[in-house]
Every structure is written in C-alpha cells, then in structure tokens.
Amino acid sequence: MTIERRLAHAGFTLTRDYPVPVARVWTAFADGDEKRSWMGDGASFERGEWVFDFRVGGRDVDEARFHGGPLSRYEAVYTDIVENVRIVTTYDMWLDGVHMSTSVAAFEFEELPGGTRLTHVEHGVFFDQFWADGPHREEGSRGLLEALDDHLR
Q1: CATH of 7-152, one of 3.40.140.10, 3.30.530.20, 3.40.50.150, 3.20.20.10
Q2: Per-residue pLDDT band at 133 (split at 50, 70, 90)
Q3: Beta strands in 31-135 (DSSP E)
Q4: Distance between CA atoms of 137 and 46, rounded to whole angstroms?
Q5: H-type helices in 31-131, by residue range?
C-alpha cells in the first residue's frame, strides 16, 4: 500500500465560560490527578503510558485505547505557562503508532463576573492519510471542554 504524502493545516478557536473562579479552572489543568480525571479516565479507556510534568519544558504523555479501538498517543511539551493566565503547548498525536499531526495549542484564562472564560486556540499540521482530520480535532477538543465543564460542576 502506497501512502500519499501530503500535509493539511487546520486551526480553530473555542471559547467556553465556566461558573467557577479562574484558580479552579487553572487547577484542573495544573494538577495531574484533576487533569487525568476530566481528560477521560474512565471505564471506557484502556490506559497506557501517562506522564504529567507541568512546567515550562515539561512533558505530558497520554496514551489510551478507547472502547477497544486504535491506540491514541498524545505527547506535549509546555512552552509557556503564566499562572492563572495562559498555557501554551506544542504536541504530537499518534494513532496505532503512526504520526498523525503536530499542533500548537494555547489556553487563555480570563476572569469574568461569576466565573472564567477559557479560550483555546489551536493550529495543527496533519500528515499523509490524516490530512482531513482537522474537523475531528476541533470536535474532540470541544468534547474535552464539555468534560471539563462536567468535572468543574
């Protein structure tokens, strides 16, 4: 089987308001146990490697198989962290060992009356057979922000 070598670029911005203080939303990202609980640590996941090193230059690794499907692997490096203000990462995704994308993601935390506005901006480069996967990444990120909302409530 020949793989068509090509690149695709996709970007999106998601904004979500949460009815809790910035410090509470921040902790959901900055504390490893909290992050793991809302990022999908449940009975439907078969967990693989997990690394959480929340500091500039630190790495996150999250590997799992969802409902017996393909093995997904996320590897991120924190490039900028300003407490209660922003988190910036670069990250790579693999699916069953095939490198599918490289992305830059920024999370901005803004205090609102009675809560927090979280803005997630991302730009990804998708490789070869995954060239059309950008809309799925946005949909998956939207689902994670929904899971965060459930976690915070």
Answers
A1: 3.30.530.20
A2: confident
A3: 45-52, 59-66, 71-82, 86-95, 98-112, 115-127
A4: 21
A5: 32-38
| The two three-digit tokens of residue 29, written as one number | 């990202």
Ranges of each domain in the chain: 7-152
CB 145 within 8 A of CB 137: no
Q: pLDDT, tens digit, for every residue of 63-93?
A: 988 777 889 999 999 999 999 999 999 999 9
Amino acid occupying residue 60: D
Task: Report the predicted TM-score, pTM, of the whole model to 2 decimal places.
Answer: 0.90
Tokens 């509470």 — which residue? 24
**Plot region of 140 (φ>0 → left; ψ -120 to 50 → alpha; else → beta):** alpha
Q: Residue 6 is encoded by which pair of tokens?
A: 């090509």
Between strands 86-95 and 45-52, the pairing is unpaired
Token code pair at residue 3:
């793989």
Half-sphere exposure of 126 (CA within 13 A, CB side): 17
